[in-house]
Amino acid sequence: MVIYFIVFLPAALVLLEFLLFLRDRGLPRVIFHIVEFISIIVLPVSFLKDDLGEINQCCGNTAFFSPEHRASLYVLIVLCTSAYAVGTLRRRVLPPLPEVLLNCLLIVGIVLNMAMAVHQKDDDLDGILSIFHIPIILLFLMMLVRNHRLFLAQAETHRGRNMLEHRCWQLLHASPWAKYPLLLVLCVPVLAVLAGLLMLFGQKPDSFIRAFTDTYRHGLSQLDHECAGVVCGGHYLCTVAARGHASVVHPERLGVRGGETIICNRQLLVANAFEELVEQRFPRLHRVIRRNYDRVGEQVERHYQLLDHKWVSDLVHVAMKPLEWFFVLVLYTFDRHPERRIAVQYLSVNERRCIADQLAQRP
Fold first, then answer.
1. What b/e readout covers 239-277, taking b as 16+ CB neighbours within 10 angstroms?
2. How far is Cα 275 from Cα 289, in angstroms, rounded to an integer?
3. pLDDT digit string, tens, across residues 263-308
4. pTM confidence score
């Protein structure tokens, strides 16, 4: 309930301010500046702080920006926010060249927030959190209009001392229909220069784009294929069976786990049959085994990208062979029908019922 209040109230008040702004009116200045501070500073800083420690992972919370490229986006966000702060605090127009740069950063901020809103999936809290980009976009739009009005009011004081400044003055003095499309085009060289500077600190030329695309399970993510076959919260052997070389891991059939289709091999079926037997015969021992297995699984889930390499999955499969043989020994020692138990693993309830009925009809 609190998250709804924190996100929706500033958005509603900024929307009201925007509608009043269209009629040359506005909210009381104190209320507006409080909402402005929450929308531009508090919510974005809180969001970025939560994302700072995240990594790309198929299970659990995953990074919103690519860990390798997020620094470029953070710098860009700081610059856009600084441009808005300068526009808010200043009382006089800047010289033509800085004024053009200021407006370009505001336009970049608008486009960036649109991209972030698309990047957030419409499920759970992400669908709610995407709303806080709307007030930022509206605030930046209003700032662009205020900058245009301020420049027209004080334009004669900064006609430019050279050709570059004079061209900037002409651009800023143009009608909005010509001015803003040209400023949008100028955002490209501004971003190119910034990307070049960030390369000195280890970033890539395309980090602004890859910060979005090199992620998992978000709107602009392009690495979702790396999570194919990953079964979260379960046997990491499921992933091994799906990603290893077929000649090594020997997949046998498809199965169902948690409503998801998985690839099953003999090793996975034996391991799950062993766990089922221990759970039925030795429940206390099962709790201990399960607790320690989950700890191993948590570490594996954090580094699922290693299993993208088929040879890694092959090595895990081979390393698990002695344990698989031990599981088979236990099953054949304590279960009257070990192969039957192994065969029904990861089958649906209906499939298990059909097999049980067929076995019951046998003489």
1. bbbbbbeeeebeeeeebebeeeebbbbebbbbbbbbbbb
2. 9
3. 788 888 888 888 888 888 888 887 777 777 766 665 665 565 555 6
4. 0.70
